[in-house]
C-alpha cells in the first residue's frame, strides 16, 4: 500500500512556466525549451521585495556610517550647517548687546560691494541685525533711503548724522570693519 508522504518542498505548476526560444545559429534554426521560474509566483515576488529592502537598508547604513556622513559630522561638530549656525548665534549676541534694548546704528567699513563674497557678507550681517533686533530698528542710513544692494547700503550710511540718529531712539553705533586680510572686527560706541 502506498501513502502520500509530504516532502519539505513541493512542485507547483504555477511556479514554473515553459518558455520557448527560437534562434538562428550559423544559418540553422534551433529551438530551445526552458523551464524557468516565474516572477508571477508569490514566493519570488516576496523574495525580490525583501531583497530590495535589505539592499536599500544596507546602502543607507553604509552612507550614514561613513566618515563623511552627516550623522558623524553632527556628532563631531564639523557639519557646515552647524558652523553657520554658530556664526549667526555669535552675530546675534553681538547685535543684542550693542543695541542695549534700543534702536541701533550700524556702520560698515572696509567692504568692497563689487566683490560677491564681501557683498554677500555685508548683506548677511545687515539683514541678520535687522532680523535679530526686531521690533527695534537698525539704521544703516536715514529711514527715507531704499537699500536693495550692498553698494546702496554703503552709500546710505554716509548720510546718517548723530543728531538724526538720537531723535530716532538710537543709543549706540556698531562699527563693523573688514581689514585687508579679511578679518572682521566690531566696535560698539555710544553716539555721544
Count the helices. How many? 6
Average of pLDDT: 78
Helicity level, as a percent range? 40-55%
Spans where pLDDT lies below 50 across 5 or more residues: 5-20
Explain what you see.
It is a single chain. The protein is of the alpha/beta class and 192 residues long. It has two domains: 16-65, no CATH class; 80-190, no CATH class. Helix content is 43%, strand content 23%. The protein has helices at residues 42-65, 70-76, 80-99, 116-133, 150-156, 162-167; strands at residues 16-25, 28-37, 103-109, 138-139, 170-178, 184-190. Helix 3 (80-99) crosses helix 4. The protein is elongated and about 85 Å long. The N and C termini lie far apart (116 Å). Mean pLDDT is 78; it is low at 5-20.
Summarize this, please?
By secondary structure, the protein is α/β, with parallel strands linked by helices. It has 2 domains: 50 residues, no CATH class; 111 residues, no CATH class. Helices cover 43% and strands 23% of the residues.
Comma- or semicolon-separated keywords:
single chain, 192 residues, alpha/beta, 2 domains, four-stranded mixed beta sheet, two-stranded antiparallel ribbon, 6 helices, 6 strands
